Automatic annotation (TrEMBL):
InterPro entries: ARHD_Rieske_2Fe_2S, RHO_NdoB-like_C, Rieske_2Fe-2S, Rieske_2Fe-2S_sf, Ring_hydroxy_dOase_asu_C_dom, Rng_hydr_dOase-A. Belongs to the bacterial ring-hydroxylating dioxygenase alpha subunit family. CDD domains: RHO_alpha_C_NDO-like. Gene3D superfamilies: Naphthalene 1,2-dioxygenase Alpha Subunit, Chain A, domain 1, Rieske [2Fe-2S] iron-sulphur domain. GO terms for molecular function: 2 iron, 2 sulfur cluster binding; dioxygenase activity; iron ion binding; monooxygenase activity; oxidoreductase activity, acting on paired donors, with incorporation or reduction of molecular oxygen. Residues 1-23 are annotated as: Disordered. This is Aromatic ring-hydroxylating dioxygenase subunit alpha. Keywords: 2Fe-2S, Aromatic hydrocarbons catabolism, Dioxygenase, Iron, Iron-sulfur, Metal-binding, NAD, Oxidoreductase. SUPFAM superfamilies: Bet v1-like, ISP domain.
Length: 455
């Protein structure tokens, strides 16, 4: 299986062919809303409709976004539909077994071309007027084509492709920027922390079952930032779940609840946190018993096995997160400033016996996902933050992100800069990178004076 990550295609000339109204290009200078040096964030970044629209233009239109897992595509014609920001996208395997991605919008009247979540096909045919496109995105059939002008050329009306695609150890990412920084460079040191989940098995990983989807009230950044930085909430927010899961029913022992650990802080917004207590292992018994820890130490290194391999949390900026302990990978799809659509997959090692995979699946469902005992706690917190943030006075009171200021350092054990486990360091870095993107014209705005911040 391959992608065209080494040679991104040029941006489709159809994009930007017609001038946009100036009102659609007005941007907000967010530099006064994000004070990462002082550790304060203005709540309007979660509620303001104009800021949300700017995110679609300057964050989601220029960042590497998770699309799907390679194991979802086994033969030509297999497809999966998803979103990049609020743009619907078809991901498919063409006849050469190359993974491709297109805007899921017919070039005729713009209706969603493919309405199925996933499946297999030889052609994508619009149910509105019957325009048909092949797996390479080329327009192949136009009913009543003779009625169009003589200069009508099907080649001019191919699907809008996602120009930059790349994979990292089974994960497929896309970027609307035709000259995007290579994916692995964008990930940087985050690759080490991802490998602790993705590279345990020489055969790689695969997704198990389908995609779980549910909606939450809240802003997408609340979820993405928490998964990047926030171990602080665990003992309080998840107290009841921890009691249920502990052998005594009284919660974890004090030395485990106050576990030592580290938090990875990336300059481009990625983040990961993980305890380093020797008992931080896989909670699903069959999974823990399956792993050969000496072999994993040989493969990944002692530090990875003692830290980010199991009980931790992480976010790849902007909206892809994962939990190694239960094999959960997920995307926080923005649906307006006040709503998130969560899509989650169960990830397992390919070499796992079926009974071990099933144990991981059941543990995943019990802890995270729409019915998970931990997931419900998180969703309630985010919706509560969002619900009151529209108040006039409430919205004017900044939020505190000061925990661990100045603690970031190269610790000599883990790659990149790290902070303490109980820290807001990765959160501050997340918002600093977000603000930098928000205040910088993107690839589609170059040379347009009206696109400057604040104008």
């Amino acid at each position: 299986m391959s992608t065209e990550d080494s040679c991104p295609s040029k941006a489709n000339p159809a994009i930007g062919r017609l001038p946009r109204p100036a009102s659609m290009n007005t941007n907000v200078d967010v530099s006064t809303l994000v004070d990462t040096d002082g550790g304060m964030i203005d709540r309007s970044i979660y509620t303001d409709r104009g800021i949300y629209g700017q995110e679609m233009r300057r964050v989601f239109a220029r960042s590497w976004l998770f699309l799907a897992h390679e194991s979802q595509f086994k033969k030509p014609g297999d497809f999966f539909t998803t979103f990049m920001g609020e743009d619907p996208v078809i991901v498919t395997m063409d006849k050469t077994k190359t993974i491709r991605a297109y805007l899921n919008s017919c070039r005729h009247r713009g209706v969603r071309l493919c309405r199925a979540d996933a499946g297999a096909t030889k052609m994508f045919t619009c149910t509105y007027h019957g325009w048909s496109f092949d797996l390479a995105g080329a327009l192949q059939s136009v009913p009543n084509e003779q009625a169009y002008p003589e200069d009508f050329d099907r080649k001019d009306w191919s699907l809008i492709d996602v120009p930059s695609l790349a994979t990292y150890k089974g994960l497929i990412f896309g970027n609307w920027d035709p000259n995007a920084e290579p994916l692995e460079e964008s990930l940087g040191d985050m690759r080490y922390y991802m490998d602790a989940m993705l590279d345990r098995d020489p055969e790689g990983t695969e997704v198990m079952g389908g995609v779980m989807k549910w909606e939450l009230e809240g802003n997408w950044k609340l979820a993405a930032e928490q998964f990047a930085t926030d171990w602080y909430h665990v003992n309080m927010s998840h107290a009841s779940a921890l009691m249920v899961m502990s052998p005594t029913g009284r919660g974890p022992k004090a030395e485990i609840a106050a576990t030592p650990g580290r938090q990875f802080v990336a300059p481009n917004g990625h983040g990961a946190g993980f305890p380093t207590h020797p008992k931080s292992r896989f909670d699903a018994g069959p999974v823990h018993e399956y792993y050969d820890y000496p072999a994993l130490r040989e493969r990944l290194g002692d530090a990875a096995v003692e830290g980010p391999m199991t009980t931790g949390h992480a976010t790849v900026f902007p909206n892809f997160s994962y939990l190694p302990v239960n094999g959960s990978i997920r995307v926080w799809h923005p649906k307006g400033p006040d709503k998130i659509e969560v899509w989650a997959w169960i990830l397992v090692d390919k070499s796992m016996p079926d009974e071990v995979k099933d144990a991981q699946r059941l543990y995943n469902l019990r802890t995270f996902g729409p019915s998970g005992i931990f997931e419900a706690d998180d969703g309630e917190n985010w919706s509560e933050v969002q619900a009151i943030s529209h108040g006039f006075v409430t919205n004017s009171v900044p939020l505190n992100f000061q925990m661990g200021i100045g603690s970031e350092r190269n610790d000599g054990v883990y790659p990149g800069q790290t902070s303490e486990l109980y820290s807001d360091a990765a959160g501050r870095s997340f918002y600093k990178h977000w603000a930098g993107l928000m205040n910088t014209p993107a690839w589609h705005e170059q040379g347009k004076q009206s696109q400057q911040p604040g104008q």
